[in-house]
Amino acid sequence: MKQGPYRADQVGSLLRSELIKKARLQKEAGVINTEQLRDIENEEINRIVKKQQEIGLKAVTDGEFRRAWWHFDFLEGLDGVEGYQTESGIQFHNIKTKAHGIKVNGKLDFTNHPMIDDYRFLQRIAGGYTAKMTIPSPNMLFFRGKLEESVYQDLDEFHHDVAQAYKKAIQAFYDAGCRYLQLDDTAWSVFFSEQGHEQIKAFGQEPDELRQSFADTINQALDGRPEDLTVTMHICRGNFRSTWVASGGYEAAAETIFDGLNLDGLFLEFDDERSGSFEPLRYVKRKDLQIVLGLITSKFAELENPDEIKRRIEEASHYVDLNQLCLSPQCGFASTEEGNLLTEEEQWAKLRHVVEIAEDIWN
């Protein structure tokens, strides 16, 4: 049996607790060591897993509590990738992240990774619940990584090596017990607007070619995966301190995303007008593809009107059968350790809201 996506699901990241934030600062100052920091992380992950179970979620995550970034921490663990200090952070709407980046300075591969042990811990404490692992999509290495020309002069070779490294990563998580893996991807958002198309061309690429390259890389990474492993993708337009980067509906890349990726499910942002209409869902041809509608925002505390959410799900069901639809927040609550602008209790209220609405619809 496949595990997930569930009628009520979540993207993955959760607001870092005050204990975690304090412990990170203490580790940085040399007050505690790595082992002591991990003990604190373990205690806090235990606590938030129990909270997710109490709320009624069937898939639980570690909240990405051991990470500073949703993507860089994983990517830096790949062979051939190194983190470095950039001159400036990533520009969001009226705000920038702290300065950090990654560069590809060697041939890409996957041999060992600390997040394998992170997953094993989550699975041990998950009990009878599904332990869901989240990692950045292979496209994020192209989208956010600085490629040193001395290593990769041929982009086809680069995409091939990325796919093979991810194939090994996926198998490693599976061997560790993972049966529900999510790839997080902001790279697709570059296709959703004319501004994004101009950025692609300025980079020396053509939108149609790059879009197909993204799809091919993902499908090559997934080729031959175990039949009982669920792999989904979360497509995002940016999430930092309750703000965003990109706008535009799915239309320009809809056929590729909905009918060209060999995934089991798609987590899609639909929490505001920046995401466009449900009409691109007409490209969903497969009956075994689950569409998780991100109709509950993780950016702000106010709870959405349940009747309005139900109305929007009914609208989406005009394009995709109701039995293929699920509900979640549009993104995580803390794509970076800084987190969005709401409290932990408000976060739990949002997730409880997802569960209650889903139970009303599908039960």
TrEMBL record:
Entry EC number(s): 2.1.1.14
Signal peptide as annotated in the record: none
Occurrences of domain Cobalamin-independent methionine synthase MetE C-terminal/archaeal (ranges): 11-359
A GO molecular-function annotation: 5-methyltetrahydropteroyltriglutamate-homocysteine S-methyltransferase activity
Keywords of the record: Methyltransferase, Transferase
UniProt cross-references to Gene3D superfamilies, sorted A to Z: 3.20.20.210
CDD domains membership: CIMS_C_terminal_like
Record-level GO BP terms: methylation
Official protein name in the record: 5-methyltetrahydropteroyltriglutamate--homocysteine S-methyltransferase
Organism: Bacillus changyiensis
Phylogenetic classification of the source organism: Bacteria, Bacillati, Bacillota, Bacilli, Bacillales
